[in-house]
Specification:
With about 350 residues, the chain is of the alpha/beta class. It has helices at about 45-50, 55-60, 75-95, 110-125, 140-150, 170-175, 190-195, 210-220, 240-250, 265, 320, 335-355; strands spanning about 70, 100-105, 130-135, 160, 230, 250-255, 270-275, 295, 300-305, 310-315, 330. The protein contains 12 helices and 11 strands. The protein is globular. Bound molecules: 5,10-Methenyltetrahydrofolate.
């Protein structure tokens, strides 16, 4: 039997994905101490198959009594996409405006191409028009900025996304600064991030991945106010904005990073963990407070001869161990990843509504 899936989602329309006021207590589970677990991340295939193989997960998953609930990001993202599709349709009917998203991809990284293709598909599925520019790896910063400025001035474009990472010779800051903040659906412009960090100010857009994490917490009735939260990682696009959002939601927040002396001990204090470290199986069972809620942002490829791609994706959290300690957990894949795309669509719709003053 598969782990139980949390399904107490709100049916709220995209009423702009505000925090829900009600809470549904997450059932605490019995702590099963794990014995002498090394703190070093598990990287080798042999260790991985011992710790976090999918067959091990399936075997343990038959015991649903002591098992964390699975926070199904794929399901929630589907729900959000349906909500967005409904609003896109009514906007088109009412004022004849179709939201538009422009995506700029520089270079030919396979993973970036896949992400961009998935974003385009997701746009199509909800009725958002997508525009794509592909530039060669050796383009200049000026060429990229030229396209950004064109999209800034194009009234049919409501959101602009520059796929990251950019080629090494480009200055990311210069490029992201060129995006009109009114169309910055990624929320990466320093003005948007700055407003996110300030009391009493609100950004026009919140970065998609951390927003997706918060949305999963809200839609599963996880109480955040007054809780201890730990964010692992401090990147501009995930860790740092995630910590700011948790703080805005009145959690007491710590950030664990590569120079933290006692990451395990700090993480074990947390009622809510958002992990965005990019290290496969970094967070072991012993790092987790019994009953904690685990949001796993990591998407780490590990070799897997049995998979057709030759690899499979695992999170930062050792899923199989966490399942016996945490009260709820996001899987990888199927957790935060699909939410990132859903939030991008939601931000693009929000932008079109704001620009056209459509309520
Ligand atoms: N300007 C910019 N904005 C971004 O939002 C952005 C970016 N650059 N660069 C790369 C990262 C990564 N990212 C993901 C989006 C969806 C999944 C996703 O849907 N993953 C699925 C499937 C993964 C698979 O099977 O390949 C899952 O986790 O279930 C993952 C990762 C957006 N990013």
């Amino acid at each position: 039997m598969a782990p139980s899936v949390m399904s107490d989602f709100s049916s709220s329309a995209t009423a702009r994905l505000l925090p829900f006021r009600y809470t549904v207590p997450i059932r605490a589970v019995q702590f099963q101490p794990s014995v002498s677990i090394p703190l070093t991340p598990l990287r080798s295939r042999s260790t991985l198959s011992r710790c976090c193989s999918s067959s091990a997960v399936a075997a343990v998953a038959t015991n649903t009594d002591t098992f964390a609930k699975v926070i199904d990001g794929k399901l929630v993202s589907k729900q959000i996409k349906d909500e967005v599709a409904g609003e896109v349709a009514s906007m088109k009917e009412a004022i004849g405006v179709v939201p538009g998203l422009a995506v700029i991809l520089v270079g030919s990284r396979k993973d970036s191409q896949t992400y961009v293709r998935n974003k385009k598909k997701a746009c199509e599925a909800v009725g958002i028009k997508s525009y794509e520019v592909n530039l060669p790896e050796d383009s200049t910063e000026e060429e990229v900025i030229k396209h950004i400025l064109e999209f800034n001035n194009d009234p049919s474009v409501h959101g602009i996304l520059v796929q990251l990472p950019l080629p090494r010779h480009m200055n990311e800051e210069n490029i992201l600064n060129a995006v009109n903040i009114e169309k910055d659906v990624d929320g990466f412009h320093p003005l948007n991030i700055g407003r996110l960090a300030m009391q009493g100010r609100d950004p026009l857009f919140v970065p998609c991945t951390p927003k997706g994490c918060m949305e999963l917490l809200y839609r599963h009735g996880v109480e955040i106010k007054g809780k201890r939260a730990v964010v692992i990682g401090r990147s501009n696009i995930v860790g740092m904005p995630a910590a700011l959002l948790l703080q805005k939601a009145n959690a007491t927040v710590s950030i664990v990073h590569s120079h933290t002396k006692n990451p395990e001990e700090v993480t074990r204090q947390a009622d809510i963990v958002i992990s965005a470290a990019g290290v496969a199986n970094l967070v072991r069972g012993s790092w987790i407070k019994p009953g904690a809620v685990m949001i796993d942002v990591g998407i780490n490829p590990v070799d897997d001869a049995e998979s057709s791609r030759g690899y499979r994706l695992v999170g930062d959290v050792c899923y199989e161990e966490a399942c016996t300690v945490a009260s709820a957990i996001t899987p990888v894949p199927g957790g935060v990843g699909p939410m990132t795309i859903a939030m991008l669509l939601s931000n693009t719709l929000e932008s079109a509504k704001r620009i056209h003053n459509f309520k």
